[in-house]
Specification:
With 574 residues, this protein is mainly alpha-helical. It contains 17 helices and 4 strands. The chain has helices at 2-7, 12-26, 30-79, 96-136, 155-193, 197-204, 221-259, 263-267, 270-273, 291-310, 312-329, 336-349, 354-400, 411-426, 428-446, 457-498, 557-560; strands at residues 451-452, 455-456, 534-536, 542-544. Helix 3 (30-79) runs parallel beside helix 4 (96-136), helix 5 (155-193) packs parallel to helix 7 and helix 13 (354-400) packs across helix 14. The longest helix has 50 residues, at 30-79. Mean pLDDT is 77; it is low at 499-574.
Length: 574
């Protein structure tokens, strides 16, 4: 029986029948039975109630999960910048679990897309952070992973970061280009100045060493600033050294010229003098401005200075000779002996530095050249005037020659010269007037007298004008006297011809008349040097000096009385 009951499936009805049988056997009262049934019913209610509560909680949890999934979906779409997503059902249909199963794939895809987007943001921001650190002067080893803002993972935001990265990459490229240009400039300057390039450039930043890659070089503001300052300092140093070298080269050339240094010795310093007129940008030869080269030039200048001091007298007299030659050509009279004695005394006494003495003499030479240049126009006219005076003198000698028209050798040449001389002599008054005007203007401008070999030029011109006037008057008087004499001779000849004497012929003795070169001569008497048109100075050179023509003679009144006058009868032979 029990076996049969065991095989019968247990249900609430079968259990209740067994319980009633047990109650019948035990003899339970109806009241007790009712209480027990009530108790069983209550216990069943409690179980159902717990099950219902659990089911309700499960449903609430599923709804919350569904709601959270929808919120998560919304947040993911918002963070990714997506307005809609095709994998999400638009309407709410089916059970809660069906809805969860429908939204789960979309969430998985969006979570994966979010992770990928975060990685992209992190990569771009890392590069931005690295370049910013390089510009700021930091290193990539000191950087931490960038924090990605997961609330905005949109493609728009990512494009903004990428644009920022592109700008930074361009800035990095520009900075790297500037760095490389600065480094190249430093290399060239160091080569010209003879400096160690690696030492110079690594002092700015160790990464600028050539052994390191281009991308590893520092591009920070501090590095660029230091490189710019280094280039500026090197360029200033180059400019200073070039000026120094050019000064030394000028001194070398001056000393060489002063002491007549042979070309063989000069060629040793061609590398110094070749840049004497070069600009800073033109000097690019490695080692052209090295310190040892400048020191070598300084030593040579010092050696030549010492040699110059030992040859000071020779050099000073050489400059004095140059100064005297300028004065001689400019017809300025100076006391050369006193000047040379003064130079000797200054050098022997040591009261003046040799360089100061030579500089003073150079200054005198410069002033003398300026003075000579200001006198050149007047001196040229003086030369023309003197040349005209010589031609005038020759013409008068030529006119006094009674045989000038004879067919002698060279007569035709003298005739042509006489024609040219007459043209030139006719220009003398205008030439003298022009010379006087120019001399007056020169004296007014300079506030001093224009002297020609120590004689005032205007006085010489005045004297010449007076003498020329007197000569013209004398010529006129002689012409009148000649006419009168000829007339008187003609009258006497007519008288003699009326009573001829066969025993005596008319005298063939010439009338003693005034000769052009006879009588007392009046010459310029302004100083002792005026008695010749050209004299030889102490240097063996001819001094051109204006004087009256050598053939000019002015007969005084006393001498004229000793000659035959127009009122005295001519002697005749009985």
């Amino acid at each position: 029986m029990e076996a049969v009951e065991a095989e019968t499936p247990l249900t609430c009805g079968s259990l209740l029948q067994q319980l009633q049988k047990i109650w019948d056997e035990v003899g339970e009262t109806d009241e007790e039975r009712d209480n027990m049934l009530l108790q069983l019913e209550q216990e069943c209610l409690d179980v159902y109630k717990r099950k219902v509560d659990h089911a309700m909680k499960s449903r609430v949890h599923l709804l919350q999960t569904l709601a959270d999934a929808r919120v998560e979906l919304t947040n993911l779409l918002s963070a990714l910048g997506e307005k809609t997503y095709g994998g999400v059902p638009e309407k709410t249909r089916g059970t809660i679990k069906e809805q969860l199963e429908a939204i789960a794939p979309a969430l998985e895809k969006l979570w994966k897309q979010k992770d990928d987007r975060i990685k992209e943001f992190s990569d771009v921001q890392s590069q931005i952070q690295k370049i910013c650190a390089e510009i700021a002067g930091g290193t990539s080893e000191q950087l931490e992973s960038p924090e990605v803002d997961e609330s905005d993972l949109s493609t728009k935001k990512l494009d903004e970061f990428r644009a920022q990265l592109q700008d930074l990459q361009k800035e990095k490229s520009d900075r790297l280009h500037n760095v490389l240009e600065f480094v190249s400039t430093v290399h060239d300057l160091c080569a010209v100045l003879g400096l160690d390039f690696l030492t110079t450039v690594t002092e700015v930043h160790p990464s600028l060493n050539d052994s390191r890659g281009v991308q590893s070089k520092s591009i920070s503001n501090d590095t660029l600033s230091k490189l710019a300052k280094t280039v500026l300092a090197l360029e200033e140093d180059k400019k200073t050294r070039l000026q120094k070298l050019q000064e030394l080269a000028t001194q070398l050339i001056d000393l060489w010229n002063l002491m007549d240094t042979p070309p063989e010795e000069r060629r040793i310093f061609d590398h110094v003098t070749c840049n004497i007129s070069a600009s800073v940008d033109e000097v690019n030869v490695p080692g052209a401005l090295a310190l040892d080269l400048i020191e070598q030039a300084e030593v040579e200048v010092e050696r030549l200075d010492q040699l110059k001091a030992s040859r000071m007298k020779e050099i000073a007299f050489k400059k004095q000779t140059e100064l005297e030659e300028i004065f001689v050509h400019a017809h300025i009279e100076i006391d050369t002996e006193a000047a040379r004695e003064k130079i000797m005394s200054l050098i022997d006494s040591g009261s003046v530095e040799p360089t100061e003495l030579l500089a003073d003499m150079d200054n005198q030479i410069t002033k003398a050249k300026e003075e000579a240049a200001s006198r050149k126009d007047i001196l040229d006219k003086v030369e023309k005037w003197m040349s005209a005076c010589e031609e005038e003198s020759w013409l008068e000698d030529y006119n006094r020659d009674e045989n000038r028209y004879n067919a002698s050798r060279g007569a035709h040449l003298n005739l042509k010269r006489a024609e040219r001389a007459r043209i030139l002599v006719n220009k003398i008054p205008a030439l003298v007037d022009s010379l006087v005007a120019k001399t007056h203007a020169w004296e007014q401008d300079r506030g001093m007298t224009f002297s020609y070999d120590g004689v005032p030029l205007l006085a010489m011109l005045d004297e010449y004008a007076m003498l020329r006037h007197e000569r013209e008057e004398e010529k006129k008087r002689l012409r009148d006297q000649k006419k009168f004499t000829e007339l008187l001779t003609k009258d006497q000849d007519s008288v003699f011809s009326a009573t001829p004497s066969p025993a005596r012929q008319p005298s063939t003795k010439k009338v003693v008349g005034p000769r052009a070169n006879g009588g007392s001569s009046r010459r310029l008497s302004l100083n002792a040097h005026q008695n010749g048109s050209r004299s030889v100075n102490k240097d063996g050179k001819r001094d051109v000096r204006p004087v009256a023509p050598v053939n000019f003679v002015a007969i005084s009144k006393e001498d004229a009385s000793s000659h035959i006058s127009g009122t005295e009868p001519l002697p005749s032979t009985p």
